[in-house]
Specification:
MetI-like fold
Length: 328
């Protein structure tokens, strides 16, 4: 550079402009036609929003704490239960609990002298296992049926929904009673029946979302590049319909717990001596005046757990549903 002259930036010519429009080179080993997961701040924003909503929603916070306690008690039942669930003590029949000074059986005993608290803890294992397993079966069947019925909205979709309408014409509990009566009362049959009879609600919700999602531009673009139907359904449509499924599955756990308790109360569910909350309700129905705790305590437990699940489901809906996010 000559002394006394100023350095000036090089002029921006058309070649530079054209070069600026050229996209950055793809990393080696990646297929440009294949979609990849790109991490964005949106996930962290949603996580922060969920935590903030949970902090503001005291009811949901209490429900979450209750469910954590129930799940932990169910998992550690052999460690924390004071007695075995089937242990019978002669001379301890229908004893009241701590309110009558009984420090040995805090929640009292039933007609056979079995500890109510121990049976509640072990019964939680049955309720949690049946609820989660049956909901998983229902969601799997219902989501698949809803995807097919919504994506192929012709004879195939109409046929699936007519089957759903036929099943809805039967009261759910009567249908479950009939099927368990045919198959026989057992834990496996109860889970199977509750799982198979609960798919309709998922299918109807998913079908409605698929009918709107499949009309969007990115689905049309996937068809235009020659993507096959299974790839479009499971890679593009399914992720966009999972939000209501998650909320619905959470709420359906409460419904399944009530259904299992109903079947056990009527004597066609899981059979004694396996402790179930519905069976404990049935054990004390004849002693409500003299030994109210035998039925009341399991009934209150079912109510609290179901209410906690519903409160948590409402929080999930407020967090995941974009309509509620925009409203707040």
């Amino acid at each position: 550079m000559v002394e006394g002259t100023e350095s000036r930036p090089a002029p921006f010519d058309q070649g530079d402009r054209r070069a600026s429009r050229v996209p950055a080179a793809q990393p080696s080993g990646l297929d440009p036609a294949r979609p990849y997961l790109v991490l964005s701040p949106q996930s962290s924003v949603l996580r922060s929003r969920a935590v903030e909503l949970l902090r503001r929603n005291r009811a949901a916070m209490i429900g979450l704490v209750v469910l954590i306690v129930v799940a932990a008690a169910a998992a550690a039942a052999p460690l924390i239960a004071p007695y075995g669930p089937t242990l019978q003590e002669t001379g301890q029949s229908l004893k009241p609990g701590f309110w009558a000074g009984n420090e040995r059986n805090l929640l009292g005993t039933d007609l056979q002298g079995r500890d109510i608290l121990s049976r509640l803890i072990y019964g939680a294992r049955i309720s949690v296992a049946v609820g989660l397993t049956a909901v998983a079966i229902s969601a799997l069947i219902g989501v698949l049926a809803g995807l097919v019925a919504g994506f192929y909205a012709g004879r195939v979709g109409d046929g699936i929904m007519r089957v759903a309408d036929i099943q809805l014409s039967f009261p759910a509990i009567l249908l479950a009673l009939a099927l368990v009566g045919i198959l026989g009362p057992s834990a496996f049959n109860v889970v199977l029946v509750l799982g198979v009879t609960g798919w309709v609600v998922y299918a109807r919700v998913v079908r409605g979302r698929v009918l709107s999602v499949k009309e969007t531009e990115f689905i049309a673009a996937a068809h235009a590049i020659g993507a096959r139907d299974p790839r479009i359904i499971f890679r593009h449509v399914l992720p966009n319909v999972m939000t209501p499924v998650i909320v619905l599955a959470t709420l359906e756990v409460a419904t399944v717990i009530i259904a299992e308790a109903t079947l056990s109360f009527l004597g066609v569910g899981i059979q004694p001596p396996t402790p179930t909350w519905g069976g404990m309700l049935a054990d004390g129905k004849l002693y409500l005046r003299n030994a109210w705790w035998v039925s009341t305590i399991p009934g209150v437990t079912i109510t609290v757990v179901v209410l906690s699940i519903n409160l948590l489901g409402d929080w999930l809906r407020d967090t995941l549903d974009p309509r509620f996010r925009l409203a707040s």
